[in-house]
Specification:
Strand content: 25-35%
Number of strands: 15
Order of helices and strands: EHEHEHEHEHEHEHHHEEEEEEEHHE
Largest sheet: 9 strands, mixed
Number of helices: 11
CATH class of the largest domain: Alpha Beta
CATH superfamily of the largest domain: Dihydrodipicolinate Reductase, domain 2
CATH topology of the largest domain: Dihydrodipicolinate Reductase, domain 2
CATH architecture of the largest domain: 2-Layer Sandwich
Number of domains: 2
Helix content: 25-40%
Strand order of the largest sheet: 14-13-12-11-7-10-9-8-15
Distance between the termini: 38 Å
Structural class: alpha/beta
């Protein structure tokens, strides 16, 4: 069976990894890619090896089963809305929506057209994180007390397009990087936060007003567990990897620590054992996970990431940004 996939938008470099994974979907037919920027479109079409077009409607008329979206973030909701209206499932790079109004409009479109829009949250697919989730769910470290996820990144400002530094085009650090980590925390806790407070600041980019290079948010879940997310664009140049994700899960009888960066590790502690590596042998690598996610979306099967989880993480991200813009004003009574 042929699986038709199209790419909408190529503004972010993540598109090339996603395109490589799409090529491994069984029976795939990459219809082509759309971008409204002629130079960007030509470059991406050559690198990926598929036709490029500036005619969005014409590409959607070819009836892709799945579209992959990696446009400028402010354009992603519009493209996803058009895609679901054309009958396609959607996999969109993070961040998904930059405002509550945009998220509301996308939720309405998904409800109307009955096609999923799933944000690509790859931390859910890393074997180390999957093994930690399984251990937490098994009760091995007791009741969840706190989950903390941190995402330091390198900025490399000279190589960034102007839209990256624009609040209108890319939101802020809590929306851009924070969406990954708020999703991880909510997923591990199995709930949306009931209380939240956040802060952000620009410490090292004075020429980019409105940009934040450091941000954090703390929150509480219905069962009482705490959550904390910290993200930044201050990762030292000496580090080999672009990112250096850290996740700490504290339970009443043990804890788990995960690092995905220059060091890749996942260890747990209980009252009986110390610094034991998690068994990740049951889990496929991240690319295999991504290909299966695309396959499930294209064939109408329930994916690894439920639609409700996408709305939850996106909304929590926007609430965190709201709080930070108000100087850390706590937000409770949030609606998810």
């Amino acid at each position: 069976m042929t699986t038709n996939i199209a790419i909408l938008g190529t503004a972010h470099g993540h598109v090339y990894h996603l395109a490589d994974c799409a090529k491994s979907v069984a029976g795939v037919n990459l219809l082509g890619l759309y971008d409204d920027d002629d130079t960007r479109r030509a470059s991406a079409a050559t690198k990926i090896g598929i036709p490029g077009t500036g005619d969005l409607d014409a590409l959607l008329r070819q009836k892709p089963a799945l579209v992959i979206i990696d446009a400028v973030p402010s354009e992603r909701v519009m493209l996803a809305t058009k895609a679901v209206a054309a009958g396609a499932a959607v996999l969109v790079d993070k961040p998904l929506a930059l405002t509550h109004a945009a998220l509301d409009s996308l939720i309405a479109a998904v409800d109307m057209h009955k096609k999923p829009v799933i944000a690509y949250y790859p931390y859910r697919g890393y074997p180390h994180v999957l093994a930690a989730k399984a251990m937490l769910d098994s009760g091995r470290i007791g009741k969840l007390v706190r989950v903390m996820s941190c995402g330091p990144h390198k900025l490399n400002p000279g190589g960034r397009p102007a839209w990256h530094f624009s609040a209108a085009d890319n939101g802020g650090a809590l929306i851009d990087i924070g969406s990954h980590h708020l999703d991880v925390c909510c997923w591990l806790a199995g709930a949306a936060p009931t209380w939240l407070s956040a802060l952000h600041a620009n410490f090292d980019q004075p020429t980019h007003t409105g940009f934040q290079d450091f941000a954090q948010t703390q929150f509480r879940f219905p069962g009482g567990a705490f959550g904390h997310v910290e993200v930044d664009w201050l990762n030292p140049a000496s580090m080999k990897n672009f990112g250096d994700t850290r996740t700490w899960i504290q339970g009443t009888t043990g804890k788990i620590e995960i690092r995905l960066g220059d060091v890749v590790s996942a260890e747990y502690w209980t009252h009986e054992v110390a610094a034991q590596p998690l068994d990740i042998s049951y889990y496929a690598d991240i690319d295999t996970w991504t290909v299966q996610l695309m396959t499930d979306l294209a064939t109408g099967k329930p994916g690894y990431i439920p639609q409700a989880d996408i709305w939850r993480a996106s909304r929590a991200t926007l609430y965190a940004f709201d709080s930070a813009r108000q100087g850390g004003k706590p937000i409770d009574g949030m609606i998810f």
